[in-house]
From TrEMBL:
Molecular function via GO: malonyl-CoA methyltransferase activity; S-adenosylmethionine-dependent methyltransferase activity
Domain Methyltransferase type: 40-128
Organism for this UniProt entry: Mycolicibacterium chitae
Keyword Ribosomal protein: no
Stored InterPro entries: Diverse_substrate_MTase, Methyltransf_11, SAM-dependent_MTases_sf
Protein name: Methylase involved in ubiquinone/menaquinone biosynthesis
Enzyme Commission designation: 2.1.1.197
Gene encoding the protein: bioC
Length: 241
């Protein structure tokens, strides 16, 4: 979880919080094991998933490698422990959580190092849950957005090898809609790692094209609210024990 692009989000932490979607309850229900109480949100970012877990009354610890992201999380969830760390070096003791959830971040990790670390902090029979929000580009304007910023495709959300000691790997997806303002769509794009790390001129041009789409597309023009459809892809595996 320490690749250069994975550490680029700090400069756009506020935009990340404004533009990125949360996660649908059905996906979280499916990811969590029955009776879970202690949960690690690994790669928690600004706390998009953390907030949903705290709302359920769970004992949540958030871990992320970027200070600026955790600062946003702490301001919203001051009573939730928020620790600097990575999937390869998790700052928790052995056998300390019932579930480790990783939202929008597993593609940044080194699985050879992360799998043993996740297994270490999980209790026997605990669960590793991975989740990605991907834009549903079957609708016209969302497909047009993809033409500007690159189509939504995350191979990690389609097939993720989770080797021993994990078993019973399963996949599930949830279709839902996120409602946001036109400016939040701009923030969504601005918070993507490829946009953050682009040369300033390219970044400016990309955001200008997004604003033009929002202002001129028949489904969006003069609208104060935007419905952005998502497919949330979930993968879960159980720690043998």
């Amino acid at each position: 979880m320490t690749a250069p692009r994975s550490l680029s989000f700090g400069s756009q932490a506020a935009a990340y919080e404004r533009g990125r979607p949360s996660y649908p309850p059905e996906a979280i229900d499916w990811l969590l094991p029955p009776g879970a109480r202690d949960v690690l949100d690994l790669g928690a970012g600004t706390g998009k998933l953390t907030t949903r877990l705290v709302e359920r009354g769970l004992n949540v610890v958030a871990v992320d490698p970027i200070t600026e992201m955790l600062d946003v999380l702490r301001s919203a969830l001051p009573d939730t422990p928020a620790l600097l760390g990575t999937a390869e070096e998790i700052p928790l003791p052995d056998n300390s959580v019932d579930a480790v959830l990783v939202a929008q971040a597993w593609h940044w990790v080194d699985p050879a190092r992360a799998i043993p670390e996740v297994a270490r902090v999980l209790r026997p029979g605990g669960r590793l849950g991975l989740v990605w929000n991907t834009r549903d580009e079957r609708l016209g304007w969302v497909k047009d957005l993809g033409a500007i910023i690159g189509p939504e495709h995350d191979p990690f959300s389609q097939s993720v090898p989770l080797p021993e000691p994990f078993t019973d790997v399963q996949r599930h997806q949830v279709e839902w809609t996120n409602y946001l303002t036109p400016q939040a769509v701009v923030d969504l794009v601005a918070s993507r790692s490829y946009c953050i790390t682009s040369p300033a001129e390219v970044r400016t041009q990309t955001l200008a094209r997004v604003r033009e789409l929002l202002a001129t597309h028949p489904a969006l023009a003069n609208s104060t609210g935007v419905a952005l459809p998502y497919v949330t892809v979930c993968i879960r595996a159980t720690l043998a024990g």
